[in-house]
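2024-03-11 09:14:02 INFO worker-7 job=invfold-0412 stage=load source=structure_tokens
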């Protein structure tokens, strides 16, 4: 006895569906997905500033009332010192966490991933003018801010 004609058509339909899905996945992974992950074009002088800007997580910062991020509220200039390093000069681990979620279009999300251990640092390259307020998660009285400005040259 031979198979009904409809099962043959069903098999061809399944094969067509598999080929169509494969072509869709190939298009997505080859063209759409990489383009969506592409970072914006940023001037090389912004990505490689003249110097780093250092912010110290001051010794004793874990004690409420002591200085925490030094200097606090500095002005950072694109192309000059927009690579900022927070150095933990304290004996206690700390974080550098944005008060409100902050994403730089080139560098991504701002904030240390976990704690910055004593003697270690957190680095972030700012590529856009902005004002940022941040704090330490375990020690919420530790607050800081900075302003990033365009270079006048």
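2024-03-11 09:14:09 INFO worker-7 stage=emit residues=153
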């Amino acid at each position: 006895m031979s198979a009904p004609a409809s099962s043959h058509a069903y098999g061809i339909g399944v094969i067509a569906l598999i080929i169509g899905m494969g072509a869709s996945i190939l298009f997505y992974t080859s063209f759409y997905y990489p383009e969506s992950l592409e970072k914006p074009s940023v001037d090389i002088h912004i990505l490689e500033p003249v110097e780093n800007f250092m912010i110290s997580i001051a010794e004793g910062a874990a004690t409420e009332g002591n200085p925490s991020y030094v200097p606090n509220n500095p002005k950072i200039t694109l192309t000059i010192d927009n690579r900022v390093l927070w150095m933990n000069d304290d004996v206690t681990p700390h974080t550098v966490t944005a008060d409100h979620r902050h994403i730089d279009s080139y560098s991504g999300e701002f904030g240390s991933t976990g704690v910055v251990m004593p003697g270690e640092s957190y680095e972030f390259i700012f590529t856009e003018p902005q004002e940022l307020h941040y704090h330490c998660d375990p020690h919420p009285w530790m607050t800081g801010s900075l302003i990033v400005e365009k270079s006048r040259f």
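2024-03-11 09:14:09 INFO worker-7 stage=report msg="The chain has a mean pLDDT of 89."
2024-03-11 09:14:10 INFO worker-7 job finished
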